[in-house]
Amino acid sequence: MSRIEMVDPHKISGDIEKMFEAVTAMMGRVPNSYRVLARVPMVSKLLLPFNAAMQREGAGSRLTSKLKEMVVIKTSHVNACNY
């Protein structure tokens, strides 16, 4: 059981539903971190474009998505996290 209750994707509407659709389009699923952040809709709406810029090419980033993904994998490995 998680410490902070996650938002159930089947019980949402409005802006959060649109945000979950955008997250699914971008990542193929709604990660648990977004389900927790959905408890604070303003933060969720601000995080999605930031996350897209940080993980995808373009949007002012000078790093390739391949390099960004390698950083994510290395960080997960160093912290002994499952990727």
Please tell me about this protein's structure.
59% of the residues lie in helices and 0% in strands. The chain contains 4 helices and no strands. The longest helix has 15 residues, at 41-55. By secondary structure, the chain is mostly helical.
Helical element count? Answer: 4
Q: How confident is the prediction overall: mean pLDDT? A: 82
Please tell me how large the radius of gyration is.
Answer: 14 Å
Helix/strand class: mainly alpha
Query: Percent helix among the residues?
Result: 55-70%
Task: List the uncertain runs.
Answer: none
Strand count, sense and closure of the main sheet?
Answer: none
Order of H and E elements? HHHH
Layout: helices, strands, pairs:
Blueprint lengths: L13 H14 L4 H6 L3 H15 L9 H14 L5
Helix pairs in contact: 1-3
What is the compact description of this entry?
This protein is mainly alpha-helical. The chain is 59% helix and 0% strand.
Question: What are the key terms here?
Answer:
83 residues, mainly alpha
